[in-house]
Design goal:
The protein has 5 helices and 5 strands, in the order H-E-H-E-E-E-H-E-H-H. With 128 residues, it is of the alpha+beta class.
Length: 128
C-alpha cells in the first residue's frame, strides 16, 4: 500500500499521538501552524501539517509527510522556528478545535478549506 492510500484509509489517524505542535505566537499573528505527529511501530513518524488563518480564510494550506525519521521532523521544526516563531507543544484537543474552528468560520463566508484537506485530515483526526 502506498503512502497516499495508507493515509486515505484512515490507518494513519489510528497511530498513537507522538506530539502536537503550534507556533507560540499564533494568537497575535492570526496564523496557526499546527502539526499533529503520529508514531509508527518502527519509530518513524507521520505528520499532518495545517496552516490556519483564524481571522478569515480558515485552512489556507495543508500537507503530510509519511513514515519519516524523527530527525527529519526535527529539521522541519527547526526551520519553521525561524520563520513562524517558536513551535511549542499543544494539546491535541486544542489543535483539533483550531483546525475545525477555522474551517467552520471560513465556511460561514463561503470559503472552503484547502483541497488537500480531504487527505491530510486522515492523518490528524475525525470530528469529535
Amino acid at each position: 500500500m502506498n503512502d497516499k492510500n495508507y493515509v486515505k484509509s484512515g490507518r494513519a489517524r489510528k497511530l498513537p499521538i507522538y506530539d502536537c505542535l503550534i507556533n507560540e505566537n499564533w494568537e497575535e499573528t492570526g496564523l496557526a501552524h499546527i502539526f499533529v505527529v503520529r508514531e509508527h511501530v518502527n519509530g518513524n513518524l507521520t505528520v499532518g501539517a495545517f496552516l490556519i488563518d483564524i481571522l478569515c480564510v480558515g485552512l489556507k494550506d495543508t500537507f503530510y509527510r509519511f513514515n519519516i525519521a524523527p530527525w527529519e521532523f526535527d529539521e522541519i521544526i527547526e526551520v519553521l522556528d525561524g520563520i513562524t516563531g517558536k513551535m511549542v507543544t499543544c494539546d491535541y484537543n486544542q489543535a483539533h478545535n483550531i483546525v475545525y474552528g477555522g474551517i467552520e468560520f471560513a465556511n460561514e463566508f463561503g470559503i472552503p478549506p484547502a483541497k488537500k484537506f480531504e487527505i491530510t485530515r486522515m492523518t490528524k483526526m475525525c470530528r469529535l
